Amino acid sequence: MRLGLAAVIAVGLVLAAWRLDLFEIRSGTPISSVAAAFDVPPAYPGYRWTRDGRTVSEFELVTSAGPSHCGWESATYLTIGWPPGTVASYASGAHLYIRDPHGVVATSYRDGLVLHATLPPDARPTGHRHGALQIYVSPSDQDRAIYVMGADGAERWPRSDPMTLCR
């Protein structure tokens, strides 16, 4: 009986750790997929990203859930200083890309999302990493999309221009 209870508790702890991404077991491991990291996007300020081995601020790169007061928390907002590596003090110095598989923000973001994308030949890494996750830009496509690469492949997230905000 005690062994059964211990197993139930252990499974519960593992599930809670996965859901809450404790110790970044879902998002920050060498085997992390884009879907595992963003199917349930983190609340602001989101994941800790690095570039060239240093942690970057949310003014350089942030990936977090959309605003909950608009019902957009199932979408992921990726805001990146532009060009990549820039610390943007104002929204005008950043680009916004939205991963919205359920179309809660707008159907155009759902329709523009490619969950199994192929990186264009001119795609280059920005240097931003979170575990196995990396951000890529393609000069031929950067005004329309950004690429998020995980251990299982890439996703193409559409750009929001102008930035989609709620009130």
Layout: helices, strands, pairs:
Layout: H1 2-20, H2 34-38, E1 50-51, E2 54-55, E3 61-65, E4 76-81, E5 94-99, H3 107-112, E6 114-117, E7 124-130, E8 133-137, E9 145-150, E10 153-160
Antiparallel strand pairs: 1-2, 1-7, 3-4, 4-5, 5-10, 6-10, 7-8, 8-9, 9-10
- Tally of DSSP β-strands: 10
Please give the domain count: 1
| Terminal residue distance | 53 Å
Tally of separate helices: 3
Helix share, percent: 10-25%
Mean pLDDT: 88
**Roughly how many Å is the radius of gyration?**
17 Å
Q: What fraction of residues sit in β-strands?
A: 25-35%
Rough outline = globular
Main sheet specs = 10 strands, antiparallel
Uncertain runs:
none
The structural class is: alpha+beta
One letter per element, helices H and strands E, the order comes to: HHEEEEEHEEEEE
